[in-house]
Amino acid sequence: MSSHLESPPIDGLSRLVSATLNSGCFCTSLDEAALGHALESELGSPGLSALVREWCPYLFSAQPVFISTDHMARMAQVVGAVESVVALPAFRRAVLADAPPVAHYDAGGAKGVFYGYDFHIDGDSVGLIEINTNAGGAMLNAVLARAQSACCPEMESMIPPLASTRALEQGIVDMFQNEWQRCGRNRPLRSIAIVDESPEQQYLYPEFLLFQQLFRRNGLEAVIAAPSELTLRDGVLWHRNAAIDLVYNRHTDFMLTSPANATLRTAFLDGAVVLTPHPQAHVLYADKRNLALLTDPGRLDALGVTPEIKAILLAGIPHTEIVDPAQADRLWNERRRLFFKPTAGYGSRATYRGDKVTKRVWQDILADDYVAQAIVAPGERVIGHRDSPQILKFDVRVYVYDGAVQWVAARLYQGQTTNFRTPGGGFAPVYSVANESDSVDAHMIQLGNSDLSNEHIG
């Protein structure tokens, strides 16, 4: 990170309180009965709760993550700065210059749903480690929000009211409606296909079912399909006997290059369907080479980025550079402070923390397309019980649509990257701790004392 361009300092008291809660609050906010009810009745369908327990048992954490409101504001500030740069014609020309032809298609005005800005928080540092354009988990977090309960009075004000959870769900539906309308479609949106390769085998298949139920409750036909199940006839995309208006694309073939995606690609380029997110969105936001541009002061100046925006980017995104074999010796010597990621990777696949890289893996990195990113440590959350605590890492995912923050969630895990394979880990609600000017609750300040051995905040 830049040492000479910093965002305003994080309020020390709220940071201390949130860190103290993350290390010493053993409150269990997840109501298992409410979770089951939301999966089976409110949002899901019969059998979904059992499917989640069997298929992905570590999807939801029982305990929340605490973040200061200043950290929340800093993350929103970084999101706004990135969005302002992506909107610049010079930036778009630069990143699209070498992109495949399909990425030059403007998608008819669709913005792309569920951008996921993933952050690490380490002390005063907030680091945007990557952006995803088909970020999963939004509907899972809607379920999680419905299943929260306060086990002590101090937690009561932190739990989001049901109205805000319902607003999130309605906002999701409105987002897809907006994608349809932005593409100049005059008639109402009638049908959505949730598309991924072998969808029933995907780890987050339960979320596909939740989206299907959400769309159906709002009067939309919804199917879950593999791309090979789609056909194009008379200018209309079909799934069996159902005409498809919009495809919610969860496939990780971002440029639609695989043979299985040939029909979807043709339908997209012919304007026969609205596709969201789409190839151009991935190139503009999720290609990790963009992080190298966004942390290069000279290139930002050349793009016409203002000094204020540049300062936010350099302070809020860990320095990233494209791995150049000509710099192999330097990068190898500096590897312990670096994280190596494939430029077009997703889901932490083929990513390596520098201190874990072997000579063999290093040769693979040099031969492929990688970036090297300065390490920003993830946050830590102590979970379990006071007599058997467990330390997990966490990152924070900020869901964004059209530049606006929709929801904030945490993911608890062990290992190098998030994996949803950690007992006690998974998606966790994020509760914000007010800054000093907002009068941090005096009882929470007392958590700095020895009474942290209590099971609850109170």
Description of the structure:
This protein is α+β, with helices and mostly antiparallel strands and 458 residues long. Helix content is 36%, strand content 22%. It has 17 helices and 18 strands. The chain has helices spanning 12-24, 32-42, 48-55, 69-86, 89-96, 138-146, 153-156, 162-182, 205-217, 262-269, 279-286, 289-294, 297-303, 307-316, 328-333, 359-367, 442-445, and strands spanning 65-68, 115-122, 125-132, 191-195, 221-225, 230-233, 236-239, 242-244, 246-249, 274-276, 320-322, 338-342, 352-353, 370-374, 379-385, 388-401, 404-413, 426-433. The strands form four sheets. Strands 1, 2, 3, 15, 16, 17 and 18 form a seven-stranded mixed beta sheet that branches. It has a four-stranded parallel beta sheet with strand order 5-4-9-10, with helices on one face. A four-stranded antiparallel beta sheet has the order 11-14-12-13. Strand 7 and strand 8 (242-244) form a beta hairpin.
Task: Please supply descriptive tags for the structure shown above.
458 residues, disordered N terminus
Rg over C-alpha atoms, rounded to the nearest angstrom:
22 Å
Oligomer category: single chain
Low-confidence stretches: 1-6, 436-458
Describe the sheet with the most strands.
7 strands, mixed
Large-scale geometry: globular
- Helix percentage range: 25-40%
Indicate the structural class: alpha+beta
Strand runs, count: 18
Number of domains: 1
Summed over residues and divided by their number, the pLDDT gives a mean of 89
Q: Assess the beta-strand content as a share of residues.
A: 15-25%
Number of helices: 17
User: Could you give the distance between the termini?
Assistant: 38 Å
